[in-house]
Design brief:
Elements (H helix, E strand, L loop, with lengths): L1 E9 L3 E8 L6 E9 L15 E8 L3 H9 L7 E4 L8 E5 L10 E4 L1 E3 L4 E3 L1 H17 L5 E6 L2
Length: 151
């Protein structure tokens, strides 16, 4: 499975984008995304990750994994974890409404207000994306995401 995330709106504190499924024809919109803003020098918990291609695996340990297992007991099998992100550790795809929920991770939602940087309907977007990606990983299919800076 291949996901492609296009960063389409960059502000000082936040970055909004769109995630599509790139392995189907025609490509399909999956969800909106929200991240921290770009910084030339990394600031822990306040900087988006570098553009690039990353494998996604399930991380089955850690505090956030336990929290999501309680929140989504019917679907949760581990956090969606981006591998080998230069200068970063434990980068996840998870739910959240603003860059303040990000800590450097990728947040998903079904809508974005480009004036305020608020992302809506995050739980529904997360459940849809999570089910799709986790099932692929559990079926031992490779899943990767390519992140591209458009704006």
């Amino acid at each position: 499975m291949r996901l492609h995330m296009l960063r389409v709106c960059t502000r000082q504190k936040w970055t909004a984008g769109a995630m599509i499924r790139a392995d189907v024809h025609p490509p399909q919109f999956q969800c909106a995304t929200m991240e921290d803003g770009h910084k030339d020098v990394k600031v822990k918990g306040h900087t988006r990750i570098p553009a690039g291609t990353y494998k996604i695996k399930l991380r089955k340990e850690g505090t956030l994994t336990q929290k999501y297992a309680q929140k989504f007991p019917d679907i949760h099998k581990g956090m969606l974890w981006l591998q080998n992100v230069p200068g970063f550790e434990y980068i996840y795809i998870h739910l959240g409404n603003t860059h303040e929920h990000s800590e450097g991770c990728i947040l998903v939602g079904n809508s974005v207000n480009y004036d305020t940087g608020f992302q809506g309907d995050s739980v529904a977007a997360y459940k849809s994306l999570y089910t799709l990606v986790a099932n692929q990983i559990l079926a031992e299919d490779d899943v990767e995401i390519t992140i591209e800076d458009v704006a």
